[in-house]
Structures are given as structure tokens and as C-alpha cells.
């Protein structure tokens, strides 16, 4: 879908295709601004009549559609409520863009023109995010609706500035959409080797990509990560992505770490069969990191950023890790593995240690679809945030609010730390019946020294059961915009 932004010329009656105009809400009800007023006059009052008949109030997102209107060139007119104009934020404009394209994408219209005097670039971002469909595996047309819309044109004031802003948004959306694709792909398509091969494509954007194979990881003492994948026919890998965008090339980077369990059966601690197919998205944390690196490099962020993902497949077999096994880690600490389905933390343990030891970053943020307990606590509206740094939490919270990827800080502390002490090793990988997401975070904390660190448990936000205004049902790409905004607002030259 091609999206363009052009200057308003004040003439709307000769625009062909689907035409979208807006109406704010006021004390008397709704208000027709010049675009709607001009169209209504040309239509001999038919637009106002349709609005009144539909009980249109100008409320946010309310829509009235007029098909085959007379007196104008448009094949249909969509009147959209703005609500209180003073309260229309960039995020609300994104939602409006998403609502509009969701309404029209299967309308049989090829061209949509949206007259948006303010925040057009944000509305265009909403269109771009909401139009996403993952339909590559349908082989017959009857199995999927084919979107009709091929082009969306926004008419706005100061179009050159809006277009420049949108070009940056497009790069960010590229990262979000790639993350959605990666999460949605089945386990027979995305496995450690194929995933790493896709990540290597980031070199085209100027990102340095390094892949550590099993021999190298064994040499480094990464028994914890390697143990998770030892039951799989696929080799485990660690992929490092480096973007050096700062003018200060030697400046310490910011670091993002992602859990990349490409398919999670639970291992010997086998998951129930029902719903296991969803475990293809257990690499959602890594997809967030990979997508963020694409966005950051795509818009040429003036910052040094490192992304590290541990790629494994957790399978049951004669070579699989057993409950009760004790493994070492790159840090030198030992782990009693009591549940092989608590595997993501085992992957992240070595990734975190490697990252802080190798790159000495300013801070580390890890993302993982780590615990079902997080979904019980927060549902699908917030990701859980655990951290040793109030300052980092404040920056993450602000970034999350700005892009509508919300976070809720959860506790860590000595009482929870004691719950993962082992009788025969330095720690065990589960804490017991209670506080499952907290003890998982506490486990990760043991692999962080003095580096400011945050752990984001995105189990509830990486995948939606219902569509939102800017995302179809399924993979959301949560975390890409969050990480990008964190860098943009706080760490660029």
C-alpha cells in the first residue's frame, strides 16, 4: 500500500475514490469544518442529513458513510468524528488512521484520500500499522479477503514537514512489521539457523552482525543456554547486532537482549498439547530486539546500540536436558534445572552476562515472553517491568506512554531472591507456586552486576487475542517502538 502526504489546496469536490473528512464535537453536537461543509453544500445537504439520521455526535472514531454521493466526484464519503479537538493527541491520530483503513481496506475502493489538517503523519502511521496482514500461506482466494486499497493520500497543512516525519515513521514501522512477521511464522520456517540467516540481512543497513555457534558458546562456558537446545536437531546460536551511529564511536552502547526460543515444547517438562502451536511466538522478545535494531538503523539513529538474541529450540528427545540437571553458566554460577519449561531465563542468563562482560553497556534491557504468571497479573494491556534502576524505569515508562506500549513496574528483592536458592547448586530455575514472574526476574538479576538493567516480561503483549486500532489479531510487534523511542529521546547525539 502506497501512502503519500500532500498539501491541502482547499478543493474537495473533485477528489475521486473514497474521501475521508473529519468533524469535531462541540457543545451543540458536531461541527462541519471547511472540507465537510464544502462537500455538504455540493451534495445539497445530503452529508448533514446522513449525519443527523445516523445520530452522529462527532464523538471520537464515530463514522458515517455516504455511498455514491451526488454533486461530488468521490465514490464514497466517510465522515469521522474527532471528539474534542483540543484532546486529539498523536496517539489518538494513529488510532484514527487505523480505524479508517480498517473500515475501508475491503471496500472495493483502490484510492483513499484523507483530509487531516493536523497530525497527518501520525494518522498515516496508524494506517501503515493497521493495514498489516499475514496471509502468505493462503493458496486460494476464498480463504482470505484481498484488500482493495492500493493507495492512501493524506492532504494536510505543511505537508513537507509531515512527509519528512512520516518517512522516519516508515522506518520504525518496517521494524514493527518485520517483528510481527517473525513471530507469526511457524516453527518449521523460523528456527535458529533460518532466523540467524534473516538477521544477517541487517548488514544491508550498516549493522554489524556476528553469530556465535555452539562451539564458541561452549568455549565461553554458556552451558545454561546450550542446555535448553540440546534436545533439538537445530543448533543453538547467539546473534549479536551492532549499530555504531554515534559520532563518538568509542562511546559505550545501550544494549537490548531478547529471548529467542523459536519453538517451546517445554522439553521433558512437556507442555499440554492444546495450545502448544502458539509457542512459535516464544521468540517474541528476540523479534522485538531485531525489529528495534532495524528501526534504529533504518532511521540512522545517532547512537551506539547493541542487540543480542539467544536462539534455541526447546524439544524433548533422548538428548534433551532433564529435570534435576545442574548446568554451569558463563558467569561461573551453577543452576539446578528443576523445570525444563522455565527455559527462557536459562537462555537470557548467558546472554546478559555476555553482553555486560563484552560491551560494558550504559544499560541493558531484556525482553522475553517469559511467564504465564505475567499474563495472570497484567493481562494483555501492560508488560511487566523489573529493574535495579529507578532512572531507567522512568525513561522506559515515558517511552512506553509516548508510543502506547505500556509498562507496569513490579517488585524484586531479597525475599524473592531467597525463593530460588537451591540445595545443591547456586540457584534453581523455578521458585515455587507463588510470584512466578517475580522469581523469574530475580533469577535474571543474578546475572547482572552493577549495570542499570530492566527486564520486560512481554508474555501478554507480544500477541493479541483480539485486534486493536493499530494491530490485527496476532503478533503485535510490541517493544520495537518502545526501544526505538527510548534511544531517540535519551541517547542520541
Structure summarized in a few sentences:
The protein has 15 helices and 20 strands. By secondary structure, it is an alpha/beta fold. The protein has two domains: 2-158, 3-Layer(aba) Sandwich (Leucine Aminopeptidase, subunit E, domain 1), CATH 3.40.220.10; 171-490, Aminopeptidase (3-Layer(aba) Sandwich).
Describe the 3D structure.
It is elongated and about 85 Å long. Helix content is about 35%, strand content about 20%. The protein has 15 helices and 20 strands. With about 500 residues, the protein is of the alpha/beta class. The strands form 4 sheets. The protein has an 8-stranded mixed sheet, with helices on both faces.
Secondary structure layout:
Blueprint (H helix, E strand, L loop, with lengths): L1 E6 L10 E9 L2 E2 L3 H9 L3 H8 L9 E5 L8 E8 L6 H15 L6 E5 L4 H11 L20 E6 L2 H26 L7 H8 L8 E5 L1 H6 L3 H7 L7 E8 L9 E11 L19 H15 L5 E11 L10 E4 L5 E4 L6 H16 L4 E5 L3 H7 L4 E5 L2 H14 L3 E3 L4 H4 L9 E2 L7 H10 L7 E5 L5 E2 L9 E2 L4 H11 L3
- What coarse outline follows from CA principal-axis ratios? elongated
Terminal residue distance? 34 Å
What's the total helix number? 15
Level-2 CATH architecture of the largest domain: 3-Layer(aba) Sandwich
* Number of beta-strand segments: 20
What is the overall pLDDT average?
97
Q: What descriptive keywords fit this protein?
A:
single chain, 493 residues, alpha/beta, Leucine Aminopeptidase, subunit E, domain 1, Aminopeptidase, 2 domains, eight-stranded mixed beta sheet, seven-stranded mixed beta sheet, 22% strand
Amino acid at each position: 500500500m502506497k501512502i503519500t502526504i500532500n498539501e491541502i489546496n482547499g478543493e474537495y469536490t473533485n477528489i475521486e475514490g473514497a474521501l475521508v473528512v473529519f468533524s469535531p464535537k462541540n457543545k451543540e453536537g458536531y461541527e462541519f469544518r471547511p472540507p465537510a461543509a464544502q462537500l455538504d453544500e455540493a451534495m445539497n445537504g445530503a452529508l448533514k442529513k446522513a449525519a443527523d439520521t445516523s445520530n452522529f455526535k462527532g464523538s471520537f472514531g464515530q463514522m458515517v458513510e455516504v455511498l455514491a454521493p451526488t454533486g461530488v466526484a468521490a465514490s464514497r464519503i466517510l465522515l469521522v468524528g474527532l471528539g474534542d479537538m483540543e484532546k486529539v493527541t498523536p496517539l489518538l491520530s494513529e488510532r484514527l488512521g487505523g480505524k479508517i483503513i480498517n473500515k475501508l481496506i475491503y471496500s472495493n475502493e483502490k484510492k483513499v484520500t484523507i483530509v487531516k489538517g493536523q497530525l497527518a503523519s501520525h494518522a498515516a502511521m496508524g494506517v501503515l500499522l493497521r493495514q498489516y496482514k499475514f496471509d502468505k500461506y493462503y493458496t486460494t482466494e476464498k480463504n482470505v479477503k484481498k484488500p482493495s486499497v492500493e493507495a492512501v493520500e493524506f492532504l494536510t497543512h505543511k505537508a513537507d514537514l509531515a512527509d519528512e516525519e512520516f518517512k522516519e515513521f516508515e522506518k520504525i514501522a518496517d521494524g514493527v512489521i518485520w517483528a510481527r512477521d517473525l513471530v507469526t511464522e511457524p516453527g518449521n520456517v523460523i528456527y535458529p539457523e533460518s532466523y540467524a540467516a534473516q538477521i544477517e540481512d541487517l548488514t544491508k543497513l550498516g549493522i554489524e552482525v556476528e553469530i556465535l555457534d555452539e562451539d564458541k558458546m561452549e568455549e565461553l562456558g554458556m552451558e545454561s543456554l546450550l542446555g535448553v537446545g540440546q534436545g533439538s536437531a537445530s543448533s543453538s546460536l547467539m546473534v549479536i547486532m551492532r549499530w555504531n551511529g554515534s559520532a563518538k564511536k568509542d562511546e559505550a552502547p545501550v544494549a537490548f537482549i531478547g529471548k529467542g526460543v523459536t519453538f517451546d515444547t517445554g522439553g521433558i517438562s512437556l507442555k499440554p498439547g492444546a495450545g502448544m502451536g502458539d509457542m512459535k511466538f516464544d521468540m517474541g522478545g528476540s523479534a522485538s530486539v531485531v525489529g528495534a535494531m532495524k528501526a534504529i538503523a533504518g532511521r540512522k539513529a545517532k547512537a551506539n546500540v547493541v542487540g543480542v538474541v539467544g536462539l534455541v529450540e526447546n524439544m524433548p528427545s533422548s538428548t534433551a536436558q532433564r529435570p534435576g540437571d545442574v548446568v554451569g553458566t558463563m558467569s561461573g554460577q551453577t543452576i539446578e534445572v528443576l523445570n525444563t519449561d522455565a527455559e527462557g531465563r536459562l537462555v537470557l542468563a548467558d546472554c546478559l552476562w555476555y553482553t555486560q562482560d563484552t560491551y560494558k553497556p550504559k544499560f541493558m534491557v531484556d525482553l522475553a515472553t517469559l511467564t504465564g504468571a505475567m499474563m495472570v497479573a497484567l493481562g494483555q494491556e501492560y508488560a511487566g517491568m523489573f529493574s535495579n534502576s529507578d532512572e531507567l524505569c522512568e525513561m522506559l515508562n515515558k517511552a512506553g506512554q509516548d508510543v502506547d506500549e505500556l509498562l507496569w513496574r513490579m517488585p524484586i528483592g531479597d525475599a524473592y531472591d531467597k525463593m530460588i536458592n537451591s540445595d545443591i547448586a547456586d540457584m534453581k530455575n523455578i521458585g515455587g507456586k507463588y510470584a512466578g514472574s517475580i522469581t523469574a526476574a530475580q533469577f535474571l538479576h543474578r546475572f547482572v552486576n552493577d549495570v542499570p538493567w530492566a527486564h520486560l516480561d512481554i508474555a501478554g503483549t507480544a500477541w493479541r487475542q483480539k485486534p486493536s486500532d493499530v494491530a490485527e489479531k496476532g503478533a503485535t510487534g510490541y517493544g520495537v517502538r518502545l526501544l526505538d523511542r527510548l534511544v531517540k529521546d535519551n541517547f542520541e547525539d
